[in-house]
Write a structure and sequence with these properties.
The structure is a single chain. The chain is mostly helical. Helix 2 runs parallel beside helix 4, helix 16 packs parallel to helix 18 and helix 24 packs antiparallel against helix 25. The radius of gyration is 33 Å and the shape is elongated.
Length: 640
């Protein structure tokens, strides 16, 4: 029944059998404890297959509890069945992104199998290999790549050892381990190794499918599909397209006997549609996506519990490509379809679907931003941010990437729309998260922390909270300096930006010596950057030279102020405001005629700036005594 995918009917039979087994085990524990445990593991595996992970977890845990109770009767048998349940529970946790729990139960299962290796070496060896394989997946998913490789290499070694004992019996297990290993490494872009693993697994599965196509042709198609993506990423486009088309044909052959494989054909069609998009074959892309979506919708009408998640997944992916093809109206409609389904699914299985739901509404927010619907964009970005903030607090290592993606989108929305003050709350919340994450992997999050502290410094500056602004910017500056040691070409710009912003604050707070120090450091970097990219950096170099010129006037270094102003205008003559610094520098050196010529030239454009500067200079005592009368005369001329 289960194999024929009659899921609902199978579920009813499982439930009836569950009641009978429990009653028998209660009355006759010695005779029925083991059948009950075996049944619970099978039932939990079924529930996992149809994505009812919450119920499946409960049954696995019930089976594990019964195994512990049974130890008094038969400890070895109880332990081995408990290891069986823990191995499959670990796989469930991997599917639900609960990797730390997965590592714990899989390690326990592994220890049990190793303990009883002498009792039944063949049975334990295969299960050790399976546990190591699942454990390797958990390590790869939590960025512990060396541990992941170590587990998979040992799992593969054991699988090959088993094949040497019985090729017919154990080749399927070796093929599965190789396929799983390739998929885990592929997600980390280890292309050449992944290709070799896929190819060996494909070779083995083709041999198996020759004699038993309905048992193994789906594995052949699955590897072709994954290998096609690998080839597409390696610019081997023709090979990629052929493999995807072959995989679809394979799935449709098996679907004649088992309709579930129509869904696998639909999934592969989505990959083929993505391939067409990347190849600028937009009409083929849209047609293929439509065909895949129609297939999923048809399957979900008969079995919504199993196929609704897939409808949502392909709808969200299709919406992305419609957006990229600038089919905004269609993208919105398809995205809303996916969001509606994911919202319903998240109510019943929060852990499995809530982050996906947040990702879908984040995507919709980006669509609204691109189409100038800013109010809707902000509302959906904030909703996605709130969900992912809660999730990353509960499981930082699992949801950090999702949180970073949504935080970057929302923060960029505020920055681009010059509403940085409105983003203060989310910047502070994100800073708390990254500081928490950095406790385990400190330098890894320096870039995120530095970025946030830079913008918080800007926010505090706009609020005239200068000491707080300086504190944030100095922290950001220190982090960027640390990062620059490994990648100066990336982080020098950010060091200059933080330094320049500090200089601005020091000028506003009349700490001119500190401002001069910061300007000199920033100019050193901008000069270096402008050599290779003058169009990109000449403007900011000119502005920073202008700030240094202005600072020099307060420090009564009038000749230096003149030199910096001249250099600034030579770099970018469109920065007319710097002419104010040049005029002041000339006047304060007693070169009145040259200065007056500039004051008259820019009188209409910069009169208010000239007068404001004179007020600031007077307050700071920066006007030479011998020039005070000339300053008053110039002021009268400007006000005429």
């Amino acid at each position: 029944m289960w194999e024929q995918n009659a899921y609902h009917q199978s579920s009813r039979y499982f439930m009836r059998a569950s009641t009978i087994y429990r009653r028998l085990a209660k009355s006759y524990p010695k005779q029925y404890y083991i059948p009950l445990i075996r049944f619970l593991i099978s039932y939990a595996g079924f529930l996992t297959t149809i994505y009812e992970t919450g119920k499946g977890e409960m049954l696995f845990k019930e089976a594990i509890g019964l195994c512990r109770d049974m130890r008094t009767m038969n400890p070895a048998f109880a332990d081995l069945w408990m290891a069986n349940a823990e191995t499959t529970l670990g796989r469930l946790y991997n599917m639900a992104n609960r990797f730390e729990e997965s590592k714990q139960v899989l390690t326990e299962a592994l220890n049990i199998y190793q303990k009883y290796y002498q009792l039944d070496s063949l049975f334990c060896l295969k299960n050790i290999s399976t546990s190591l394989m699942n454990l390797g997946t958990a390590y790869f998913k939590t960025f512990q790549d060396e541990s992941g490789d170590s587990c998979y290499l040992e799992a593969t070694r054991i699988a090959r050892q088993l094949v040497n004992r019985s090729k017919e019996l154990h080749t399927p297990h070796l093929a599965f381990v190789l396929f799983s290993y390739a998929s885990s490494r592929h997600s980390l872009q280890f292309d050449s190794i992944s290709e070799n693993l896929y190819r060996e697994a494909l070779y083995l599965y083709k041999i198996l499918a020759h004699d038993n196509p309905y048992a193994y042709l789906d594995d052949v198609a699955g590897i072709k599909s994954n290998l096609a993506i690998l080839y597409a990423n390696s610019q081997r486009q023709h090979e990629s397209e052929l493999l995807l088309q072959e995989a679809i044909a394979d799935y449709r052959i098996i679907a004649q006997k088992d309709p579930i494989f129509e869904s696998m054909a639909a999934m592969t069609m989505a990959k083929l549609a993505s391939f067409y998009f990347m190849s600028n074959r937009y009409l083929e892309c849209e047609n293929t996506f439509n065909e895949a979506l129609d297939l999923w919708k048809g399957l979900s009408e008969n079995d919504p519990q199993t196929y609704k998640p897939k409808v949502a997944e392909i709808a969200i992916n299709f919406a992305v490509y419609c957006y990229r093809m600038r089919r905004f109206q269609k993208s919105e409609a398809i995205n809303l379809l996916g969001i509606k389904i994911l919202q319903q699914l998240a109510i019943h299985d929060t852990q499995a679907y809530e982050s996906r739901y947040a990702g879908a509404i984040d995507q919709l927010a980006s669509l609204y931003w691109a189409t100038q619907r800013h109010e809707e964009a902000e509302r959906f970005y904030k909703q996605a941010f709130d969900i992912r903030l809660r999730l990353v607090k509960a499981a930082p290592q699992i949801y950090e990437k999702d949180f970073t993606y949504t935080f970057n989108n929302l923060s960029n929305f505020y920055i681009t729309n010059q509403r940085i003050n409105d983003g203060e709350t989310i910047f502070n919340q994100a800073l708390d998260i990254y500081r928490l994450l950095s406790q385990d992997s400190r330098k890894r999050y320096f870039q995120e922390i530095a970025k946030i502290e830079y913008y918080l410094g800007e926010i505090k500056y706009l609020q005239s909270r200068y000491n707080e602004a300086i504190s944030f910017l100095e922290d950001a500056h220190s982090l960027y300096q640390c990062l620059s040691k490994d990648s100066p070409h990336i982080y020098d710009l950010y060091i200059a930006m933080a330094t320049g912003h500090l200089a601005t604050i020091y000028i506003d707070t009349k700490r001119y010596s500190k401002a001069e120090e910061m300007c000199v450091k920033a100019i050193e970097i901008y000069r270096r950057l402008a050599i290779d990219k003058p169009l990109e950096y000449n403007s900011i170099l000119s502005q920073t030279l202008g700030s240094l010129s202005f600072t020099s006037l307060f420090l009564k270094n009038y000749k230096q102020a003149e030199q910096y102003a001249l250099e600034s205008l030579a770099v970018d003559s469109t920065q007319h405001w710097i002419a104010t610094n040049l005029a002041h520098a000339l006047l304060f050196q007693g070169r009145t005629e040259e200065a007056e010529e500039l004051y008259r030239q820019y009188k209409d454009e910069l009169k208010d700036a000239f007068l404001d500067d004179f007020r600031l200079f007077a307050e700071a005592g920066a006007i030479p005594k011998k020039c005070e009368a000339e300053v008053e005369r110039i002021k009268k001329m400007l006000e005429e």
